[in-house]
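Form 7-S
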Amino acid sequence: MDFFKPDSDLMQFISRVVDFAWLNILCFICSIPIFTIGASISAKYYVAMKIERGQEPVITKTFFRAFKDNFVQDFKISSVMILIYAFFGVDWYIIIKSNGNGTQVIAIGMLAIFTAMFLIIGFCIFPMISRFEMKTFDAFRNALIFGIVHLPRVLLGLIMAILPFIISIWYYKWAWLIWLFIACVALYYNSRFFIKSFDKLEEKTFGKKTSDNEPEPDYVEFNLDALESVSSEESENAETDGADSEEKNVDVEDDSEETVKE
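Output:
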């Protein structure tokens, strides 16, 4: 039957699911020492984006090569992020235990803002490092700017990352399967999101996507001006769309008035 041919849509879909499941398992195993979690996530997205670009890498070999290439920088960033999250965790624990009061409103608000900022950074920074070359300090700044520019999509990605742990509270017997399923779905959609966003940055930087007419390089130098340009263009497009919709509404109102007059 055609369904079971290696190049059929069904078999390609199954192959993609198996690849993403194995990637998530590799990432989980290599994240067990905690401080290697950044290198694991970076390597996972490096391979996943190559798969989505149709390059068909050797999963395990490519994963560990990317893990090794970015290990030092990812280790530094992971160490900083873990300490920051631990600090925020202790602060939230103290606030919840104290039940809060009127004098803590400002402190809670500031803590919520900084927690949100570093959640956004944590979601964006490792996929960006898997694609772009940048200094460690610049990586934090660029990840925050990138996350703010694409805030709705980043929030969706964060929800998908937290969701399996919440669901597992009620269905703990199937926790590993729930996590693996949602992790595969999240990796698929997040990889496509990052590819689309990174392609825009590369197009602004080089005048074209590097994968158009030449082999794609492993890493590309990050260009902050390109990100700001993309951000301004998206804002202008949103304003233009809003203006167009207003004009359309005005036209509809005029037409309705003419109809009434007739």
